[in-house]
Amino acid sequence: MKKDNKKQYIIPIFVPHLGCPNDCTFCNQKSISGQMKEVTKEDVTKKVEEYLASFKKGLEKEDIHKEIAFFGGSFTGINPEKQEELLSVAYEYVKTKQIDSIRISTRPDYINKDILKLLKKYGVKTIELGVQSSNDYILSKCKRGHTFEDVKKASKLIRMHGFKLGHQMMVGLPESTKLDELNTAKALIKLKPKMVRIYPVLVIKGTKLEQEYKTGEYEPLTVNQAVERCKEVVYLFNKKNIEIIRIGLQNTDVITSPDNENSEVVAGPYHPAFGQLVEDSIWYDSIVDKIKKINVKVKEVEVIVNPEDVNNVIGHKKENLKKLKDIYEVDVKVTPDEKMKIGKSDLKILKVYTDFKQDELENEHEKVTK
Ligand code: SF4
C-alpha cells in the first residue's frame, strides 16, 4: 500500500442512513454503523471534542492532518437540512483551524451540481463513492439501484468541482469473479480516484444476502480466497500510485467474529486483521520473488525494511516466516532500518546451502574429534 509519512487523524462520525430507500442485498446499515439513533449536531460536537482532547499533546500541528469523516450511510441522500445541520458544526472546527478538513461518503446517484455546491459551502474536501463493482449485472444482482455509468458521471463531476475523489469497491459480491474485480479496479483507475477502499463481502444479519447464504444461493469467500482476490486488486492500484486507505471493514462491537454472540456477521471472510493479512501476503510474494531470482539455494537471508514494514514482513502470527521456512527452507531475519523507504526492501544472503553443508560437516568433524 502506498503510505504517507504524514500522520493523519480521522474523527469518524457514523451517520446511519435510516431512511435509505435502497435495499442493497449485502447491507444492513444499522448494524454496520453500530447504532440506530439519528445523529444530531450535539453528537458531532461531543465526538469531535472527545477526539481533540485525546490527541497526543506535543505534536506540532504541521505534523498531523485532522479530518472529520462522515461515514456510514449515503450522506448526500439524507435530507439537505440534516446535512447542513451536521456539516455546519464540522465546518466551525475547520474555520477555527482545529480541524483541517471534512470528508463524506455517499452513493454515485446522490451526486449532482447542487449537492456539490452545498458540500463546497461547508468546506468538504473529499468525497468517497460507494461503487462496489463496474459490472452492471453484478450491481443489479445486489440491488444497488445504480449503474456504473452513474459512477462515471459522479466521479467526473466531483473532480471537476475540485474535490478529492475516493472509491469503495467490494470483493466477493454475488456472481462476481476475480476477473470482474480486476475489471472494476481497472475501470476505477481510469476515473482517477485519489484513494480507494476495498471491502471483502461479509454476510450481515438481517440482510437479503443472509437469506441467499442460508438457501445456498450465495457462497461467501474464505479468508484465504478473499486475501488472494484483494491482493490482485491492490497490485493494480499500487502500480498507479492510488492510495489504499482501507482493506476490510473496521472491527466494531458488532462487526466481529461470527463466533461472538453479539456479532452481526453471519459468515464470510471476517478476520480481525484482514488488511494486515493482505499486506503480509504482498510482502511474502515479494520476498519469494527475490529469493527465486538468486542463483544459489539460500539457507538464510536478511530482509532489511523500514521499521513500519517489519510486522508485515514477519506476517500475522509469524505466518510469513513459517511459510518461507516450510516451503522454501529459508530462515529469514528481518532487520529494521530507518533509511529504507516504506514499502521497499533489501535482501542479503547470509548463508547458502553449500555454507550450511560446510557448517554441518565442521560440526560433525568437531563431534568426531572431541
Ligand atoms: S449500502 Fe448504502 S445505499 Fe445500499 S442500502 Fe446500505 S445505506 Fe442504502
Compile the SSE list and pairings.
Blueprint: E1 7-15, H1 29-32, H2 41-54, E2 64-72, H3 80-95, E3 101-106, H4 113-121, E4 124-132, H5 136-141, H6 148-160, E5 164-171, H7 178-190, E6 195-200, E7 203-204, H8 208-214, H9 223-239, E8 243-247, E9 265-267, H10 274-293, E10 298-305, H11 310-314, H12 319-328, E11 331-336, E12 345-352, H13 353-369
Parallel strand pairs: 1-2, 2-3, 3-4, 4-5, 5-6, 6-8, 10-11
Antiparallel strand pairs: 7-9, 10-12
Bound molecules: iron/sulfur cluster (SF4).
Iron/sulfur cluster binds next to loops.
Give the ordered list of helices and strands: EHHEHEHEHHEHEEHHEEHEHHEEH
Classify the secondary structure makeup into a structural class: alpha/beta
Strand content: 15-25%
- The end-to-end span amounts to 54 Å
Low-pLDDT runs of 5+ residues are: none
* Overall pLDDT score: 90
What is the CATH architecture term of the largest domain? Alpha-Beta Barrel
Hetero groups bound?
Answer: iron/sulfur cluster
- CATH superfamily placement of the largest domain: Aldolase class I
How many distinct folded domains?
A: 2
Radius of gyration: 24 Å
Top-tier CATH class of the largest domain: Alpha Beta
Largest sheet: 7 strands, parallel
Q: What percent of residues adopt helix (DSSP H or I)?
A: 40-55%
Oligomer: single chain
So what's the overall shape?
globular
Helix tally equals 13
* Total strands: 12
As for the CATH topology of the largest domain, it is TIM Barrel
- What's the arrangement of strands in the largest beta sheet? 1-2-3-4-5-6-8
